[in-house]
UniProtKB/TrEMBL annotation:
Gene: NDAI0C01660
Family named by the database record: Belongs to the TRAFAC class TrmE-Era-EngA-EngB-Septin-like GTPase superfamily. Septin GTPase family.
InterPro entries: G_SEPTIN_dom, P-loop_NTPase, Septin
Name listed for the protein in its UniProt record: Septin-type G domain-containing protein
Keywords on record: Cell cycle, Cell division, Coiled coil, GTP-binding, Nucleotide-binding
Lineage: Eukaryota, Fungi, Dikarya, Ascomycota, Saccharomycotina
Region (Disordered), start-end ranges: 1-20
PROSITE patterns from the UniProt entry: G_SEPTIN (PS51719)
Sample GO molecular function, one term: molecular adaptor activity
GO cellular component, one term: Gin4 complex
Secretion signal span: none
Coiled coil (residue ranges): 334-394
Domain Septin-type G: 31-311
Organism listed in the record: Naumovozyma dairenensis (strain ATCC 10597 / BCRC 20456 / CBS 421 / NBRC 0211 / NRRL Y-12639) (Saccharomyces dairenensis)
Biased composition (Low complexity): 1-11
Length: 396
């Protein structure tokens, strides 16, 4: 495990942490304004690039020595990058946990274990510090959000993705993202998103979604308030399609924008019609920063602590948290899609059953025909045998 030097970054243009609503801003400031984000997923999906894009600076430098031999530096250890994000009078201590890509091995059994161990270790370390007589200053690296990078295959989630997400979601606020979404067309992306959402719901993976229920952190909001509408829009965009880049290009109007350049044009990172980067950054560092911190404290850490004190077995994939998964399908549009899909599957099953029955009937008919043929042949054989016997008699 290595720790990079602390960087202070004054984001240009601002990331938005200073725009936390006043009351939340105050709580975040009192609690020390510290936020820990973990990125994980298969190798080469743009996790390191995303971190640098998110904080609008090169938080993680490429190793010049290594770069001479390999053009892209692989993350081989769990890296802890520390930064202080300063905006106006607000400063946020950010810890980013960059994890090595997994899934490259022939046997990827338990590829998620180092991630789970890291999250558990942080809870454990915090718990021990709390048990000390002097516990004012605590070293806290509890993970507030885990960004899980999904390969943009356009097909669906792999069993390894499902298993890893299931396990991570029981310990931390899991936010799945579609990596390198610029490699998919808009249509492919929509289909891919919809498939991933269906798997997440079917497998009951507990991903972090902005709270919509009353009685949540935001119970001061009415169901029709702009904040609730914003929350609903964020839920509809999940899993967020992200694009990362560390380069700026002229957008044709003389303004440099962070983008990826293609022969046919630019994919602008901050453009909502190109990707969901801005939505995700807003969720992480502005609107739901405090929700992420509070759910980590009140749900994930508390559950871990309780289980440890009760002597629970943390090997169980469903532990520590067994809270019900929030539904992604609040939107009637997704309900309709789900119903249409159910109908499609039922029709397919019926058609297959019909085809199978027809095939069974054909086999029965064929057997009857063959039995008839067999009887014919047997009677012909009998006749021939009789003729042979008669001939032999005559001959004698
Ligand atoms: P590991 O450290 O091996 O786990 O890789 P990583 O997931 O950190 O990927 P990294 O950020 O090193 O990026 C790998 C390659 O993908 C680099 O060449 C990046 O320029 C490229 N890349 C990063 N983000 C994107 C993206 O959004 N779209 C496209 N098309 N390429 C990207």
């Amino acid at each position: 495990m290595s720790a990079a030097a602390t960087a202070t970054t004054t984001a240009q243009p601002p990331v938005g942490v200073s725009n936390l609503p006043n009351q939340r801003y105050k709580i975040a400031n009192e609690r020390g304004g510290s936020f820990t984000l973990m990125v994980c997923g298969e190798s080469g999906l743009g996790k390191t690039t995303f971190i640098n894009t998110l904080f609008q600076t090169t938080l993680k430098h490429q190793d010049a020595q290594q770069r001479r031999y390999t053009p892209i530096k692989k993350t081989v250890d769990i890296d802890i990058i520390r930064a202080i994000l300063e905006e106006k009078n607000f400063s946020l201590r950010v810890n980013v946990i960059d994890t090595p890509g997994f899934g490259d091995n022939v046997n990827n059994n338990k590829a998620w274990q180092p991630l789970i161990d890291f999250i558990d270790d942080q809870h454990d370390s915090y718990m021990r510090q709390e048990q000390q007589p002097y516990r004012k200053v605590k070293f806290d690296l509890r993970v507030h959000a885990v960004l899980y990078f999904i390969k943009p295959t356009g097909h669906g989630l792999k069993p390894l993705d499902i298993e890893t997400m299931k396990r991570l979601s029981t310990r931390a606020n899991l936010i799945p993202v579609i990596a390198k979404s610029d490699t998919l067309t808009a249509q492919e992306l929509q289909v891919f998103k919809s498939r991933i959402r269906q798997v997440i719901e079917a497998q009951e993976i507990r991903i972090f979604t902005p709270p919509l229920e009353t009685g949540s952190v935001k119970d001061d909001e009415s169901p029709d308030s702009p904040a609730m509408e914003h929350a609903r829009q964020l839920i509809e965009s999940m899993p967020f399609a992200v694009v990362g880049s560390e380069n700026k290009y002229d957008n044709g109007q003389g303004t440099p924008v962070v983008a990826r350049q293609y022969p046919w044009g630019l994919v602008e990172i901050e453009n909502d019609s190109h990707c969901d980067f801005r939505k995700l950054r807003g969720l992480l560092l502005r609107t739901y920063l405090l929700d992420l911190i509070l759910t980590t404290e009140e749900l994930h850490y508390e559950t871990y602590r309780r289980l440890r004190l009760e002597g629970g077995n943390s090997e169980d994939p469903n532990l520590p948290v067994k809270a019900p998964a929030r539904k992604l399908s609040h939107n009637p549009k997704y309900k309709e899609e789900e119903n249409a899909l159910k109908k499609y599957f039922t029709d397919q099953v019926k058609a297959e059953e019909q085809r199978f029955r027809q095939w069974e009937q054909n086999i029965v008919n064929e057997r009857i025909r063959l039995n008839g043929d067999l009887e014919d042949i047997q009677s012909k054989v009998k006749k021939l045998e009789e003729q042979v016997r008669n001939l032999q008699l005559k001959k004698r």
